[in-house]
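Target chain:
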Amino acid sequence: MAPPSFDGAIAFAQDLIRIPSLPGQEGPLTERVLQEMRDLGYDEVYADDMGNAIGIIRGGPGASVMLSAHLDMVAEGDPSEWEYPPFDAVIDGGYLHGRGAMDIKGPLAIQTHVGATLRDRVPGDLIVAHPVFEERGGWGMDVLTRPGEGLTPDVVVIGESTHGDVAIGHRGRAEIEIVLHGLAGHASAPERARNALDLLPAVLRGVEDLQGDQGEDPVLGRSSVVATDVTAAPESRNVIPDRVVVSLDWRILPTDDEESLLSRVRAAIEPFLAARPHPGMEVEVRMAREVQRTYTGIEEERQIFSPGFLMDRDHPVVTAAAAAVGTRQGQGPAKVRPWTFATDGGWTCGVRGIPTIGFAPGEERHAHTNTERLALDEAEWGYERYLELVPAVAEAVPG
């Protein structure tokens, strides 16, 4: 059994970076994570049906804590655009470089080693659970925490990078499709067709109006919606399209739900569609969906929807976390703020109601970029702070 350590965590992180793990292709990475948990002496180590990697250090009857960092990553893009090869896990200049260095394989490795270090320091079970499919909406965490089926921790610490701050929430994300239906025809005889593109200007004017009618939260900021893609079918350039799909990316507040979003889109575009250029042309507003398939073979069509969440700044878990983490200068509690991007905390807190905070080394600005890197001095500080953070939030769980 190998002893947990910061140096061991960084070597483990290098191994993880060298294993590409796009959503649905996390299998080899899961096996490597499970092997590390076994080597570190976790009491229980397994992958569930979804392929989520789970390790448990059994404790007493007190509050249980779950540490979580997802297994999947985003694509690396053109490797020639990287200063350091994205899967070589190079350490240079005080940084660990590569895809996943800070989002999220570096923090995942730290959480995994910290978990083994904290045996007997948490009143209940210490669960280290790394789910699949976070980058495509959080299917893994959704299943992992379903009532009656999954795990039921009393508090969750998400290992998405916070640059040493304590994160208490984020906006969610919804992808909505506006489908314009017409009648296809040959481009040489447009009078015989009903061009679905004729509806596009009206729809975009409605979306523009919707952009000016967004809610705002004093902590999370303003919700935002923007058209990000337009596709027409058939794709042939000498055919008048009978189907156009406008895709909207909506960064939503925790109070927003799917049906309210769809209703607002319909209400925004309908006034501009009142005078349709052709009778019988229809407009459909729906949540975008995609078929997702886990590496274990489970397949499901899912909405592209990531819930948001927000913890009260005065919640005992938040204040305990901020005090335990502190600042790198050793002056007072850590800064408390939201993330700029969505995480699996939307499922654990926003949907399941489990107190959830985020903490991990790494700068958010490097996420999903070809400059992704993790500062080793910050990572070592973060490792040490985790040793104080986890017992503190366990003791702070109400009741």
In short: Residues 57 and 297 are 28 Å apart (CA to CA).
